[in-house]
Design brief:
The chain is of the alpha+beta class. It has helices at residues 12-26, 86-103, 105-109; strands at 34-37, 50-63, 70-81, 113-125, 136-147.
């Protein structure tokens, strides 16, 4: 019996997130922006004039029909901008980051089978309760329906 190579040895959520972070780091529209992958401490967000951060949120089953379970992976992409025009800069950086996330779908389709609704942008927040970022903030929530490879 021959097994196909595992395209997601750390699991689909890790692989999807890693593909998005790699795309964010490589995109020329975000040149000069610090891209953080699941920052472990709030202090990681306190330095730098332009920051984009990616955070895993959750991975939930939708159905067990078919050969592999259908799941929804949820993640957040946020930007902090501390330039002289922080609100404008945050919105511009978020738009660039969102375009990169959308453009990363072909790479993600090499890892997992995108299902149903595919990638959806959900709520977008501009402030977080009890957190002063010292500039402009835009935080978007995303979901991606997928099936893991066999």
């Amino acid at each position: 019996m021959s097994l196909k190579p595992d395209t997601c040895p750390q699991g689909a959520p890790f692989a999807i997130g890693a593909a998005i972070v790699a795309a964010l780091r490589a995109d020329p529209a975000l040149d000069g922006v610090a891209v953080l992958d699941n920052p472990a401490r709030a202090s990681a967000l306190s330095e730098g004039s332009r920051i984009v951060f990616f955070e895993d949120q959750r991975d939930t089953p939708i159905s067990n029909e078919g050969q592999s379970p259908k799941r929804t992976y949820s993640f957040a992409v946020g930007v902090i901008n501390r330039t002289t025009v922080p609100r404008e800069g945050a919105h511009a950086d978020y738009r660039a980051a969102k375009r990169v996330v959308k453009a990363s779908m072909p790479a993600i389709e090499q890892l997992v089978r995108i299902e149903g609704r595919g990638l959806l942008e959900g709520e977008v927040h501009y402030r977080l309760e009890n957190i002063d970022v010292g500039g402009g903030l835009v935080l978007g929530m995303f979901t991606l329906d997928y099936r893991e490879p066999k």
